[in-house]
Amino acid sequence: MLRDRIQSRGKRDMISSKPFCCAAGAVLIWGLVGCGGSEQSTSSPADRATSGAPTTPEESEVIVTNDIPSGFPADIPEYPGADVLQGRSAGADGMTVKLETDDSVDEVNRFYGDTLAAQGWSTELRSSPTGTVVIADKDTRKLVVGISTTAAGRTRVDVIVVEVPF
């Protein structure tokens, strides 16, 4: 009987860890995209030419701005009234946006849960003591919206969208 409960719990943990793995993967992608605060490219044309790396902008450059990236999907809403701290585009690899607002974590969570569902995204909400993660899928895209409170008491929103071709 105890063995059955342990095995059953193990299966539940494996099933519930799938969204966590998606979120962890998105955070990994965010890390690969890097950090920065001004518009820039992470590689120069000379570096790409000598390294044998692809030379098309959508395959080789990370563009960082203080605005929503050009080409950001229209079916992913920007939180109304939020301050855009940073936008990043890694071309086909994905896009990220960092926002802050004075609204609560719960308000932002409800907005993204409701608005994404209305845009045809399948969503799942995960809460923790430090914030909330909205995990969403649509067609071949994966979306993670991390919502947390900053040290200054504002609500931070990290939006990460990637194309998953398989």
Summarize the structure.
This protein is α+β, with helices and mostly antiparallel strands and about 170 residues long. It has helices at about 1-35, 45-50, 55-60, 105-120; strands spanning about 65, 85-90, 95-100, 120-130, 130-140, 140-150, 155-165. A hairpin with a 2-residue loop joins strand 5 (about 130-140) and strand 6.
The global form is globular
The residue-averaged pLDDT reads 75
How many angstroms separate the termini?
40 Å
Strand fraction: 25-35%
Count every beta strand, where a strand is a DSSP E run of 2 or more residues: 7
The tally of structural domains comes to 1
Structure description:
The protein is of the alpha+beta class and 166 residues long. The protein has one domain (2-163). It contains four helices and seven strands; from the N terminus they run αααβββαββββ. It has helices at residues 2-33, 45-51, 57-60, 105-118, and strands at residues 63-65, 83-89, 95-101, 122-128, 131-138, 141-149, 155-163. It has a seven-stranded antiparallel β-sheet, with helices on both faces. A hairpin with a 5-residue loop joins strand 6 (141-149) and strand 7. It is globular, with a radius of gyration of 18 Å. The chain starts with a helix and ends with a strand. Mean pLDDT is 75; it is low at 1-58.
Chain-wise SSE layout:
Layout: H1 2-33, H2 45-51, H3 57-60, E1 63-65, E2 83-89, E3 95-101, H4 105-118, E4 122-128, E5 131-138, E6 141-149, E7 155-163
Which features would summarize this protein structure in a list?
single chain; 166 residues; alpha+beta; seven-stranded antiparallel beta sheet; 4 helices; disordered N terminus
